């Protein structure tokens, strides 16, 4: 049955997915099996018919080196077979493999596939073949240069941002996960070219413990990181209020050429690792403001440990960017029983008090606005600008070759697809991306 009510959006939207990406993302221990649940819910609503579904290319060793250390990648490559009773050793722990990031078999395949998803999505924005690119298998914002951290084995976000910087001078990174986006901020703490903006729960003992109000970047990048530390059980009303105050200010001052949003779903009500009380409506309100800016946009996943709600959220966001409304009742599909007892697309908030008082929020807003006024340059400093232009010339030449090739390849595959007969009704055709 057709579940799409209307198509209002003329934007070119690419959704990165294939069986290998789902298979590898399903193997992530903290979100085992989640990727397929998300994908199948999107398919059940028939949304992939309106998306360009693009097969990702796995990241190479050299791709991963654009952020991660050789030592860490070599270690990842060395992990082949892990038995159920495997005990972590000192070397594993050196690279962050322990309680929350246990080593997994064929780790390089997992890491290169997950990273490749976000890099491929970013390349579509660089080539100009999409206005919005989505990878719900990405968004692993805690991974560090030298190792894994907080359920994250590879920082696909930094690798995607590095890809975007081949074309775009100023990248705005927005992190909506309930946890601080520390891995991404750490990567760009010194940078004026990438502004990181994170909204998250911040209280003693809550992971990762960073992302306070005073945490604004260092030295050359001072003022180009912004953190909104929220108290427990923040609600749609709270995120809407603070996002409405902060986002336009950051956008106007920083003037990004492209935006990356980590849509971690663990800020939703009922998440076992969360402690916030958002619904999909709260995320959508933020997304509406971001979409209104009409800039190229990369949407990534992240946390989200109540899988049914995570799938609800990312399906809702996918529909939102497509400009379609979803039937309240979830269509029957393979994972339908996971959505009981209501079997509806709505995420209900919990009956719990939002700890954030208006006075506290206003104090944070005032400090953040003060910092934005104090530190953000309207133009990059002359020296940085000059260096950038030189680098950009080389990058531009490199990109031109790549763009032409990419666009022609996407066209070729579209033509081939059109020649196919008996297309499956609920599944979109999958295009190949050739670099
Ligand atoms: Zn999280």
Name of the CATH first level: Alpha Beta
Any idea what the CATH superfamily is called? Answer: Histone deacetylase domain
Per DSSP, what share of the residues sits in E-state strands of 2 or more residues?
Answer: 5-15%
- CATH domain topology: Arginase, Chain A
Low-confidence stretches: 1-7, 381-427
Q: How many strands in all?
A: 9
Q: State the assembly state of the protein chains.
A: single chain
Helix content: 40-55%
| Secondary structural class | alpha/beta
Distinct helical segment count: 13
Alpha-carbon Rg, integer: 21 Å
Largest sheet: 9 strands, parallel
Subcellular location: Chromosome; Cytoplasm; Nucleus
Main location: nucleus
Family: Belongs to the histone deacetylase family. HD Type 1 subfamily.
Catalytic activity: N(6)-acetyl-L-lysyl-[histone] + H2O = L-lysyl-[histone] + acetate; N(6)-acetyl-L-lysyl-[protein] + H2O = L-lysyl-[protein] + acetate; N(6)-(2E)-butenoyl-L-lysyl-[protein] + H2O = (2E)-2-butenoate + L-lysyl-[protein]
């Amino acid at each position: 049955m057709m579940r799409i009510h209307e198509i209002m959006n003329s934007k070119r939207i690419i959704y990165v997915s294939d069986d290998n990406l789902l298979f590898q993302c399903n193997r992530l221990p903290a979100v085992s099996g989640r990727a397929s649940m998300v994908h199948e819910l999107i398919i059940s609503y028939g949304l992939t018919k309106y998306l360009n579904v693009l097969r990702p290319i796995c990241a190479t060793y050299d791709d991963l080196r654009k952020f991660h250390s050789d030592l860490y990648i070599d270690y990842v490559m060395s992990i082949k077979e892990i038995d159920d009773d495997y005990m972590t050793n000192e070397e594993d722990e050196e690279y962050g493999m322990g309680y929350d990031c246990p080593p997994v078999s064929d780790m390089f395949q997992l890491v290169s596939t997950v990273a490749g998803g976000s890099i491929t999505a970013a390349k579509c924005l660089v080539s100009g073949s999409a206005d919005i690119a989505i990878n719900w298998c990405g968004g692993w914002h805690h991974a560090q240069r030298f190792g894994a951290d907080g359920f994250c084995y590879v920082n696909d976000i930094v690798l995607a941002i590095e890809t975007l910087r081949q074309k775009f001078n100023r990248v705005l990174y927005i992190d909506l996960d309930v946890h601080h986006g520390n891995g991404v901020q750490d990567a760009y703490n010194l940078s004026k070219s990438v502004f990181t903006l994170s909204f998250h729960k911040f209280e003693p003992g809550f992971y990762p413990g960073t992302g306070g109000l005073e945490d604004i970047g260092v030295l050359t990048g001072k003022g180009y990181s912004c953190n909104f530390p929220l108290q427990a059980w923040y609600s749609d009303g709270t995120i809407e209020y603070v996002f409405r105050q902060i986002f336009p200010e950051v956008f106007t001052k920083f003037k990004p050429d492209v935006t990356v949003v980590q849509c971690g779903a663990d800020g939703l009500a009922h998440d076992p690792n969360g402690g916030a009380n958002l619904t999909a409506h709260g995320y959508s309100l933020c997304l509406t403001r971001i979409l209104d800016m009409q800039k190229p946009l990369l949407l990534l996943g992240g946390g989200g440990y109540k899988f049914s709600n995570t799938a609800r959220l990312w399906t809702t966001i996918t529909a939102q960017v497509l400009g379609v409304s979803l039937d309240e009742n979830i269509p029957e599909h393979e994972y339908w029983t996971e959505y009981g007892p209501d079997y509806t697309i709505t995420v209900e908030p919990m009956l719990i008090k939002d700890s954030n008082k208006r006075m506290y929020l206003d104090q944070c807003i005032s400090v953040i606005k003060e910092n934005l006024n104090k530190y953000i340059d309207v133009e990059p400093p002359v020296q940085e600008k000059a260096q950038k232009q030189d680098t950009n010339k080389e990058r531009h030449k490199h990109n031109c070759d790549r763009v032409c090739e990419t666009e022609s390849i996407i066209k070729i595959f579209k033509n081939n697809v059109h020649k196919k007969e008996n297309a499956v009704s609920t599944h979109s055709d999958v295009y190949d991306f050739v670099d």
